[in-house]
């Protein structure tokens, strides 16, 4: 009888061991599934962002629209997009009241070195005392076009630990999409300008001139004037000195 009890105890312990292994494996699988679902959701959001921004390339408010999307997707208190202009970072879109972002010394250090950062603290990391707002969670990622630095996205929250590493990965993916959309918008603008301007001298062409005149005639009640400039004997100059010199005269005149 004792042998059966011993065997029973052995089997029971063996079963409990297997049960623990199965539960641990199930927990690991469940954790992986949750992470996979988050990754899929993030990927879907990035694809949707891509579709959205690329459908508004011609909009002057493209960067502001992207900034509003970041606030909605991450559920942050504030989001600010800064873009480099003449060697300086300038705010191009923000939902901070008053429009001025207050950067602490740590942020300035990371921004100067074009590095991503994530800070969480019980104490306010930055404050907007005028509006009674104290920020306790801050995250920033650089915006780059093929390794060329062009700006920064900085988001924050009044709730500590509301921003984490997963969200930083997601924001980095968004920054890559922003970089692509900004580059595409710039190319779109360049192509659009090419249809308006003379390729030699860079001034607006005849088609654009008549388009603007039509708009003034149809929509503008204010008085306006049209000034015409004529180059005397220009054909003779071309015939005498050649078209290359004629082109240079047009460039210098314009």
**Annotation field: number of helices:** 7
Could you tell me how far the N terminus lies from the C terminus, measured between alpha carbons in angstroms? 111 Å
Tell me about the biggest sheet? 5 strands, antiparallel
Mean pLDDT: 80
* Beta-strand content bin: 15-25%
Strand order of the largest sheet: 2-1-7-6-3
Shape: elongated
> Can you give the helix content as a percent range?
40-55%
CATH superfamily of the largest domain: GAF domain
Poorly predicted sequence stretches spanning 5 or more consecutive residues: none
> Can you tell me the CATH topology of the largest domain?
Beta-Lactamase
Summarize the structure.
The protein has 254 residues and is of the alpha+beta class.
């Amino acid at each position: 009888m004792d042998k059966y009890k011993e065997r029973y105890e052995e089997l029971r312990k063996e079963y409990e061991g297997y049960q623990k292994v199965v539960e641990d494996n199930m927990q690991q699988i469940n954790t992986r599934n949750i992470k996979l679902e988050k990754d899929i959701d993030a990927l879907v959001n990035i694809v949707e962002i891509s579709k959205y921004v690329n459908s508004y390339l011609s909009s002057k408010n493209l960067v502001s629209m992207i900034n509003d999307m970041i606030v909605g997707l991450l559920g942050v208190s504030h989001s600010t997009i800064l873009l480099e202009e003449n060697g300086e970072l300038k705010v191009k879109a923000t939902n901070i009241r008053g429009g001025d972002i207050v950067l602490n010394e740590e942020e300035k250090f990371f921004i100067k070195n074009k590095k991503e950062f994530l800070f969480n603290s019980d104490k306010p990391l930055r404050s907007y005392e005028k509006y009674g707002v104290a920020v306790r969670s801050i995250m920033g990622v650089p915006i780059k076009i093929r390794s060329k630095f062009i700006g920064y996205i900085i988001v924050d929250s009044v709730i500590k630990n509301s921003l984490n590493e997963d969200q930083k990965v997601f924001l980095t993916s968004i920054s890559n999409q922003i970089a692509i959309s900004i580059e595409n918008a710039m190319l779109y603008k360049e192509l659009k300008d090419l249809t308006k301007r003379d390729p030699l001298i860079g001034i607006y062409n005849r088609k654009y001139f008549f388009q603007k005149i039509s708009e003034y005639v149809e929509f503008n009640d204010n008085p306006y004037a049209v000034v015409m400039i004529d180059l005397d004997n220009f054909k003779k100059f071309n015939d005498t000195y050649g078209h290359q010199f004629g082109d240079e005269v047009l460039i210098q005149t314009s």
